[in-house]
Amino acid sequence: TSRLCAATKLESVREISGGRVSLGSFSEAQHVLDPALLEAVMQELVEEVRKRAPDAKEADKWRVVDSSVFDAVQRMGWAHFQTHNGVRQSAIRLHVTYDLIMGVPCKAVVSKAKVGEQKIWQTQWEQGMGELGDRNYSLDYKLLDRLDEAGGFFLVRLREKSFHFEAQEELPLSPEDTQANVTRQAWGLLGKERPRKRVRVIWIRMNSGESLALATNLSVERLPAHNA
Description:
Layout: H1 2-7, H2 11-17, H3 23-32, H4 35-51, E1 62-72, E2 80-84, E3 87-99, E4 104-112, H5 117-121, E5 130-133, H6 141-149, E6 153-157, E7 165-170, H7 175-179, E8 182-190, E9 199-205, E10 211-216
Parallel strand pairs: 1-5, 5-6
Antiparallel strand pairs: 1-3, 2-3, 3-4, 6-10, 7-8, 8-9, 9-10
């Protein structure tokens, strides 16, 4: 905290803060700081970065979604998520959407640590935008259906050892696919509930010998397997 106070003496920081900030002010902020304020600050920083980034092509609208958990001081009551050995523990989760083509973050949401990635993710969708996500974003197949209905497209990693897939149409592999270690691709249905929208699953052999499975609602023409 003392280092933060020292930083407020810098001219560039005073232009934003309006002046020096005392140690007591920082201590008091830990009691009153809420997620809405943190989110507003993060979004303002995101907009600053976007202004400095080059324009992306209209056709290349892919974003990476992910989140990280950070410990918070106990006095941030709104961030409390569990009590361990009689000690209250607080933490926040920072949900970030990263513009893959522009190479900059484009959205940021702060929540309690226990708020899941999927819950925040579905509030960030935009029509015509592609979403890249790890296995946590593919656990709810109905969510992928809703993203498709909202006019978005996706490429998400599946849990290789636990996902259920009913293949309906096996697809051929191009020489480029084979060279990229793609071993199979097929259209079909995820999960056992019906009705469900079709997805294309792509299997890739990793250098470790393990298999990587990706699901997308894009056609081969729009997203060749070797580009996944």
